[in-house]
Design a protein that fits this description.
The chain is of the alpha/beta class and 350 residues long. The protein contains eleven helices and 16 strands. Helix 1 packs across helix 11. It has a seven-stranded parallel β-sheet, with helices on one face. The chain binds NADP nicotinamide-adenine-dinucleotide phosphate. NADP nicotinamide-adenine-dinucleotide phosphate binds next to helix 1 and helix 11.
Length: 350
C-alpha cells in the first residue's frame, strides 16, 4: 500500500528534513507541500537540496489543502498547529513536529508557551522508557503523534535509563547543550545571523526559562512510572557555529550504594537492543559529526566518583533524531511498517 502525504511548513528546516527522509520512503507518495509567506513558489527554490521533489509547488496552509491525505505532517512555529489539527478529522495519521500537542500539563504550557492549550498526543520518541516499557508500544497504531523537541528528547533519552532504574537522583539534574542554529528555524532573526554566530559560542535561555524543560520533566516522570519523582533540571543551551547538531552533557547524582557496574547496566539494558540509540564503550564519547544526517542518538557514559555523579554525553542531529527522523520512525510504527524504513544509523563525518 502507498500512503499519500501532505507536509506543511515545507519551506522550513523541519519540514525540509521530513521531506528529505520521506523522499526515500518506498511506501510514501508526497502529494502536497504547504508554506505561509512563501506559498505559490516552487519548493526547490527554498529546499534546493531536494532535487527529486523539484516538481512540487508550495501551497497556502489551510485545512482544505491538507485534507484528503492519508498522512499529514505539520512543521509550523509552535502555537500554529492547533488551528489545523482541530480540522483534520479525516486524516488517518497526523504528526505534529511543533510543541502544541507535546505537554500533558496545561499549567506547564501556560508557564512556558502561553496561548491555547491543545490535547496531548502520543509522544514520538520510541526508545523512551515509560513505566517499565518502551514508548514504541504506545506508538503502534497511533493516529495522532507529537514529535519531540530536539533538545528535550536528547536530554530525556540521556537520563531516562538512570531515572527508571532508580540509580540516579532526578532532583538535581544539570545539563549543558552545545546546539547548532538550525534548531531555531529558518526565519530571519538578528541573533542567528552569521556575523553573530561565527567564531563565538552564545548562551541563551539561561536560568530555567527554556521551553523544553517541562517536556524533559514530563518524560523523566513517565520513565520512573508509578514511583513519584519530581525532576529538577538546570538547563543551559549554548549556540555554537555548526549548522546542525546537539551535544548534550547531562549529569545527576548517583544514588547511595549504587555501584559503577549498576550505573552502566541501567543504560546498557535500556538501549542494548536499540538500533537508533547506542551507548558507546566506557571511555568513549560521541561527536556531533558522527550522527549528522543519521537517526542516531549516540551516547557516552562516565561515572565521576569525585563528584559522585553520572555524566552522559549525547550527540544527536537535531533535524533527524531530534525531529524528522523521530517523526518518520514514529510514522513507521503507527502504520505497522519496519521501524527503520527510510532511516539510517550512519552519519556523514567529517
Ligand atoms: N529546527 C529544529 O531542529 C526543530 C527540532 C524539533 C522540533 N522543531 C519544531 O518544528 C517546527 C518548525 O520548526 P522549523 O525549525 O522548521 O521552523 P522554520 O524553519 O522557521 O519553518 C517554519 C515553517 O512554518 C511556516 N509557517 C510560519 N508561520 C506559519 C503560519 N502562521 N501558518 C502556516 N505556516 C507557517 C513557514 O512558512 P514560510 O517560510 O512560507 O513563511 C515555514 O515553512 C517548530 O514548531 C519547531 O519547534 C524544530
Amino acid at each position: 500500500m502507498t500512503y499519500t502525504v501532505a507536509v506543511s511548513g515545507a519551506s522550513g528546516y523541519a519540514g525540509g528534513e521530513i521531506l528529505r527522509l520521506l523522499a526515500n520512503h518506498p511506501d510514501i507518495d508526497i502529494r502536497t507541500v504547504t508554506a505561509h509567506s512563501n506559498a505559490g513558489q516552487p519548493l526547490i527554490q527554498h529546499q534546493p537540496h531536494l532535487r527529486s521533489l523539484a516538481h512540487l509547488t508550495l501551497h497556502e496552509t489551510t485545512p482544505e489543502v491538507l485534507a484528503g491525505h492519508d498522512i499529514v505532517f505539520l512543521a509550523l512555529p509552535h502555537g500554529q498547529s492547533g488551528q489545523y489539527t482541530d480540522a483534520l478529522g479525516d486524516a488517518s495519521l497526523v504528526i505534529d513536529a511543533g510543541a502544541d500537542h507535546r505537554l500533558t500539563s496545561q499549567d506547564s504550557w501556560d508557564a512556558f508557551y502561553g496561548g491555547t492549550f491543545h490535547e496531548p498526543w502520543t509522544y514520538g520518541v520510541p526508545e523512551l522508557l515509560v513505566d517499565g516499557k518502551k514508548q514504541r508500544e504506545n506508538l503502534r497504531g497511533a493516529t495522532r503523534i507529537a514529535a519531540p523537541g530536539c533538545n528535550a528528547s536528547t536530554v530525556s533519552l540521556s537520563l531516562a535509563p538512570g531515572v527508571a532504574a532508580g540509580v540516579i537522583d532526578p532532583s538535581d539534574i544539570v545539563t549543558m547543550l552545545a546546539v547548532g542554529p538550525s534548531g531555531a528555524g529558518k526565519s530571519l532573526k538578528p541573533h542567528l545571523l552569521g556575523g553573530e554566530l561565527l567564531g563565538t559560542a552564545n548562551p541563551y535561555a539561561v536560568g530555567g526559562t527554556h521551553r523544553h524543560i517541562p517536556e524533559i520533566q514530563q518524560a523523566l516522570r513517565q520513565a520512573r512510572g508509578s514511583a513519584a519523582v519530581e525532576p529538577r533540571i538546570s538547563f543551559t543551551p549554548v549556540l555554537v557555529p555548526m549548522a546542525r547538531g546537539i551535544l548534550a552533557t547531562s549529569t545527576a547524582p548517583i544514588v547511595d550504594g549504587v555501584s559503577d557496574d549498576e550505573v552502566r547496566a541501567a543504560w546498557e539494558s535500556a538501549y542494548g537492543d536499540e538500533t537508533f540509540v547506542q551507548v558507546l564503550p566506557g571511555g568513549s564519547f560521541p561527536r556531533t559529526a558522527d550522527v549528522l544526517g543519521a537517526n542516531t542518538a549516540l551516547m557516552g557514559l562516565a561515572v565521576d566518583r569525585a563528584a559522585n555523579r553520572v555524566t552522559v554525553v549525547t550527540a544527536v542531529d537535531n533535524l533527524v533524531k531530534g525531529t524528522a527522523g523521530a517523526a518518520v520512525q514514529s510514522m513507521n510504527l503507527a502504520l505497522g511498517l519496519p521501524e527503520d524504513r527510510a532511516l539510517t544509523v550512519n552519519g556523514v563525518a567529517p
